[in-house]
TrEMBL record:
Residues 75-282 form the ABC transmembrane type-1 domain. It is found in: Cell membrane. This is Amino acid ABC transporter permease. It is a multi-pass membrane protein. It comes from Streptosporangium jomthongense.
């Protein structure tokens, strides 16, 4: 029997790859973008010119007080408040996040109550409350609870200075926000990592410290950097309790020389300098953690490649 049909094509034959042709694409005109750019440049130049030639700004006063000793002292207090509040807030946030992820309903409830209260009330109210805590508790001491004898006692008005009240308000409030950031970072780690560490005999504390937190830092670092930058500016709220930080000192100076706008510009310039330095530091820290994360992924793939080659 004769069978007719199209000739068969060898299955093993390979067709030559098509040559890559250059793409000569023409971008469509975007007149709206050019018009918007011109308007933006014109607005910035006009604003800059208006600020420079405005005689009411008193640039000579601004230059004079930029390096004034009182301004630099307030700047140092602002840096101290920011660093100490972030360190204490981060410690409180890690503790509250671990309590939220605990298997104990009592610990979860206590942590949830803490974050709910301090995130739900304004920071300004909290600062004023801590500054006036002596109206509620005239003294603090260490001794037998439930009105028992006290071994050591301090007067609240002597213990709670404006700096201490500012530190308490900023740090405890920041801890409530850091708790959510740390909790999100811990949850981003694959549960299999924890299970593998527990299978190796690690305790819960070792798993958290050696396995979970190092991997969660890649998620925790960016929002923590944003919180640090925000804290630099939030310290200005301490001026309501005369905390001797940058804005408070600027206010005291312009109450004497009546250069209100000039002194506010001085404070603003230093805030911009601080936030710029913090932003650059955050950028390099994030790049370092990204590089470490990619290096870890590459090393894992390289270690697993021999197992893939021998499989059938």
């Amino acid at each position: 029997m004769e069978v007719t049909g199209a000739p068969e094509v060898a299955t093993g034959a390979r067709t030559a790859p098509e040559p890559h042709l250059p793409i000569d694409a023409i971008r469509p005109p975007r007149p709206g973008r050019w018009i918007a750019a011109v308007v933006a440049v014109f607005a910035m130049v006009w604003l800059l010119y208006t600020i420079i030639v405005n005689e009411n700004l008193h640039w000579d006063v601004i230059v004079e007080y930029l390096t004034d000793g009182r301004i630099l002292g307030g700047l140092w207090v602002t840096i101290q408040l920011t660093v100490l509040s972030m360190v204490i807030g981060l410690a409180l946030g890690v503790l509250a996040a671990v309590m939220q992820l605990s298997g104990s309903p009592v610990l979860r409830a206590a942590s949830g109550l803490y974050t709910w209260f301090f995130r739900g009330t304004p920071l300004l109210v909290q600062l004023i409350f801590w500054f006036n805590i002596g109206l509620v508790f005239p003294s603090f001491g260490i001794g037998v609870p439930f009105d028992g004898p006290k071994l050591i006692e301090w007067q609240a008005n002597e213990l709670i200075t404006p700096f201490t009240a500012a530190l308490l308000g900023l740090a405890i409030n920041e801890g409530a926000y850091m708790a959510e950031i740390v909790r999100a970072g811990i949850r981003s780690v694959d549960p299999g990592q924890r299970e593998a560490a527990e299978a190796l005999g690690m305790s819960h504390r070792q798993v958290l410290r050696r396995v979970v937190l190092p991997q969660a830092m890649r998620v925790i670092i960016p929002p923590t950097g944003n919180q640090f930058i925000s804290m630099l500016k939030t310290t200005s709220m301490v001026s309501v309790i005369a905390g001797a930080e940058l804005l408070t000192v600027s206010q005291r100076i312009y109450l004497g020389n009546f250069e209100v706008i000039a002194m506010l510009i001085v404070a603003s310039i230093w805030y911009i300098v601080l936030t710029t330095i913090a932003s650059v530091g955050q950028h390099f820290i994030e790049k370092r953690f990204e590089r470490g994360h990619h290096a870890l992924q590459t090393r894992v793939r390289r270690n697993l490649r021999p197992f893939g080659k021998g499989s059938v």
